[in-house]
Amino acid sequence: MFTNNLMNRAIGSVDCCPWGAAAGRREDRLHESSPLRGRPLYTADQRLRRDASPWTMVQGILAPLQFAVFLISLVLVMRYLATGQGLGIATASVLVKTVVLYVIMVTGAIWEREVFGRYLFAPAFFWEDVVSMLVLALHTTYLIALFSGSVDAERQMWLALAAYSSYLINATQFVLKLRAARQEHAWSGAALGHTS
Hints:
By secondary structure, the chain is an all-alpha fold. The protein has 2 domains: 1-39, no CATH class; 44-195, no CATH class. The protein is built from 7 helices and no strands. The chain has helices spanning 2-14, 27-30, 44-52, 54-83, 87-116, 126-148, 153-195. Residues 18-36 have low confidence and may be disordered.
């Protein structure tokens, strides 16, 4: 009993998921000590810093650019795996995707520092940052495999697909978070309009 309660409090202290019940947890037990329990995604000050930061625009440009590069590269990698042709262009596309990933990770960390006061793992984006580290690790592993020649080209492309799968999960996390932030902003605006 004591161990279960201690475990629930430990999980609750790092659990930032706003959909606990949908994830199979009981809201009343696990979310009592969650860092985001009852809090908006952005405080009023954080929203002002977000809106004033030039890095917000940079992220807004880089995110769809990275997704477009991802889609093109995915097609090229799949083409190579299906036909054995186009290794050079597929490899170049993965390299471009990786460079764009590094740029968005660095600028995203700067943005997070300006808005939340820390470069990574701000409570509002904790799980997105955790998965981002996996995405970064897989893309970096691809680069190591490519430049060291430690695995053949086909395995390199499969590694690229693993990196792309993690990227797709991460992109989905950020889209859901953006949607939640927009809904939260709309709800708070509606509440203010209703009370005035």
